[in-house]
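Tokens in:
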């Protein structure tokens, strides 16, 4: 394990968010800290400092190398625990000792197979489980002995407390087979609307990612969750697609998730009113947009957008210029059905 740096953070901190740093700073002097977020940090172990007696919320997100959380049981005041995108975490030691815990979220933790018995967590009211494929039934939840976990989807359990007993209610959120990504005004009153409607008519759950109303704070947790819950990605390449940082950022996530899925995800591009050579950056159309992005964004990120465009352009897709709307819609739906069937067989 790498040594922690010698510097100390101000002891009066109440909220701390650490992103993409390693090693982590010392936390033992943060006696007043109530909220801690650890995001995309390349660490294998997260040691919980004994001094964090007032911590109420702990969020660990997309730390893909994290294998162990040390000392979690020390957080006796912890009320909210969120663990998301921890691909190497096998177990959550000390979880059953968090007697103040009210909210537990576990999302996209591929290797976790069993949670400890939760019967001691008398204050737990909200349990949210999403895309944890190896998770087995959970012990210590009264009244849900026959409940079957949807390991691929998104399940929410809520506890109703009264004087005599507690009752757990469960509900499942829809999982998306298809993630539809496009540049707003150019396409969503044409090909995208038709495609979206056709998929719902054919009972194919689809998530539409429109960049019209994006905030300036990043790609957003909702989009990341939809990407994690989808197995088929359909980017719709229009003339101004590459001018949108959001479209490119999402495309990069599509390529990354597909390459890591070992054949369990697919990208089916639609070339709406552009040529394949435009997306390959062999013309000035998208190339000019990327040149402008170099001046506004991190060069490594823009480089990843460029690589994603070239990689997706080489994939088998659908060219609208050569076909009618109906022909393209029918071809896309047929290919989605084929992909779903193959993915169901492989899973």
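Residues out:
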């Amino acid at each position: 394990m790498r040594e922690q740096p010698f510097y100390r953070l101000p002891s009066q901190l109440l909220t701390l968010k650490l992103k993409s740093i390693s090693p982590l700073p010392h936390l033992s002097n943060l006696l007043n800290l109530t909220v801690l977020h650890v995001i995309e940090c390349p660490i294998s172990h997260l040691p919980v400092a004994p001094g964090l007696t007032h911590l109420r919320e702990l969020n660990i997100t997309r730390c893909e190398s994290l294998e162990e959380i040390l000392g979690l049981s020390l957080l006796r005041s912890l009320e909210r625990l969120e663990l998301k995108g921890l691909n190497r975490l096998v177990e959550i030691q000390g979880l059953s000792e968090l007697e103040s815990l009210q909210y537990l979220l576990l999302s996209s933790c591929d290797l976790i197979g069993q949670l400890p018995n939760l019967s001691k967590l008398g204050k737990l009211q909200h349990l949210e489980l999403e895309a944890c494929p190896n998770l087995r039934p959970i012990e210590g939840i009264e009244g849900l002995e026959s409940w079957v976990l949807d390991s691929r989807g998104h399940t929410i359990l809520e506890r109703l407390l009264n004087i005599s007993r507690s009752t757990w209610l469960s509900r499942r959120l829809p999982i998306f087979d298809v993630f539809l990504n496009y540049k707003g005004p150019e396409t969503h009153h044409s090909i995208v609307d038709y495609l979206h409607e056709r998929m719902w008519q054919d009972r194919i759950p689809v998530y539409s990612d429109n960049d019209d109303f994006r905030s300036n704070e990043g790609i957003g947790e909702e989009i990341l969750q939809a990407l994690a819950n989808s197995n088929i990605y359909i980017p719709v390449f229009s003339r101004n697609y590459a001018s949108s940082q959001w479209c490119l950022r999402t495309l990069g996530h599509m390529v990354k998730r597909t390459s890591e899925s070992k054949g369990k995800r697919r990208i089916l591009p639609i070339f709406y009113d552009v040529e394949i050579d435009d997306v390959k950056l062999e013309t000035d159309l998208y190339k000019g947009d990327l040149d402008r992005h170099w001046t506004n964004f991190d060069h490594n990120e823009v480089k990843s957008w460029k690589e994603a465009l070239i990689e997706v352009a080489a994939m088998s897709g659908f060219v609208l210029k050569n076909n009618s709307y109906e022909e393209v819609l029918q071809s896309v739906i047929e290919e989605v059905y084929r992909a779903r069937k193959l993915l169901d067989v492989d899973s």
